[in-house]
TrEMBL record:
The keyword Amino-acid biosynthesis does not apply. Keywords: DNA-binding. It comes from Bacteroides intestinalis. Pfam families: HU-HIG. This is DNA-binding protein. The lineage of its organism: Bacteria, Pseudomonadati, Bacteroidota, Bacteroidia, Bacteroidales. It comes from the Bacteria. Gene3D superfamilies: IHF-like DNA-binding proteins. The keyword DNA-binding applies. GO terms for molecular function: DNA binding. Residues 1-126 form the HU domain.
């Protein structure tokens, strides 16, 4: 088995209107959910499904608590997790207080060992023509994106803009435009406001 890639045109940041160089980008075959992942580990290890499920939840809980208490956490041979912070920019340390600092996300640093083993194991092949878009740029057509979206929403209750962007390979702006078009067509319904917006089947 191989991982898929496809070629995409680099953004024309200078708006020259000329063809831009192509670059390779990973094309996911889908999303492996937690249940399927646990099933695979269960099949290859013989460890009970319920024990694996409980262990995964315990790992997640301990990871969250350790990060909340100010630790960088090493997650086995996988790598390291560290909180990423957000604050306004100041010239003097006295201009900012603890209440103004907030969590932005998590930084993940892959371990050298895991990278080396993954790099030795992974092989790539161009995405098959029947799965590729008819678009010359190599992106999925709107119809193909809709099919992926419907399959995703059969597994999960909702999707947000970032998830749709990753699923479809669309830029953030194009993802929003396309999601709004699906709403107008009655395919989707939108819930929430701002960054909390999610989309469900219409």
């Amino acid at each position: 088995m191989s991982a898929y890639y496809d070629l995409f045109e680099s953004p024309d940041v200078q708006n020259t209107g000329k063809p831009q160089p192509l670059y390779a980008r990973f094309i996911p075959k889908g999303t492996m959910g937690q249940e399927e992942f646990i099933d695979r580990v269960h099949r290859f290890t013989g460890i009970s499904h319920s024990l694996l499920q409980g262990a995964m939840q315990a790992f997640t809980d301990e990871l969250r608590d350790a990060l909340a208490n100010g630790w960088t956490v090493e997650f086995g041979d996988l790598g390291y997790f560290t909180p990423s912070l957000s604050s306004r920019r100041v010239m003097d340390k006295k201009e900012i207080r603890s209440a103004s600092v907030s969590l932005r996300g998590l930084n993940f640093r892959l371990s050298k060992q895991f990278f080396r083993e993954l790099n030795e194991k992974i092989t790539f092949e161009r995405r098959p023509a029947q799965e590729a878009s008819s678009d010359v740029s190599g992106t999925l057509s709107k119809e193909e994106c809709l099919k992926l979206l419907q399959e995703y929403l059969q597994k999960y209750p909702c999707i947000n803009r970032t998830q749709y962007s990753q699923l479809s390979g669309r830029s953030r702006k194009r993802a929003i435009v396309e999601l709004n078009a699906f709403i107008q067509e009655g395919v989707l319904a939108k819930h929430g406001m701002g960054k909390a917006v999610v989309y469900i089947m219409g």
